[in-house]
Amino acid sequence: MRKTGLIVVALMILVLSQPALVLCQTKAGLWDGTQWKDLPQETKIGYVKGVGNLADYEMAASGKRTGVICRALGEEWKNKTITTIVQEVDKFYRENPQKLSLPVIEVMLRCCKGLDIPQPK
Predict the structure, then answer these.
(1) Phi, psi at residue 103, to the nearest 5°?
(2) Whole-structure pTM over 0.90, yes or no?
């Protein structure tokens, strides 16, 4: 119960730390490249940290039953800096402007080596 409360608090801090302008322009749902490209570096770092913390928590709490996403991110990110991850996402959207509608989390997964993500139809 205590861990769940900590996650809720961490996610609230992440959301409340976002610039008000971005929150006003963003409808509920997954962030995609249209929002990502306009975010300041600090917000991108906060987003990556939040995703990483969630993946770490799920891996610690679930043990061997961890989901594919958390395992993939945990394995891929263990030897990367947060700045490197942000740069990879930036690079993906810069090199694929036609894919700005892809959610940021999907782009993060596409950057994971050895993980086969199906292409959207």
Answers:
(1) -60, 145
(2) no
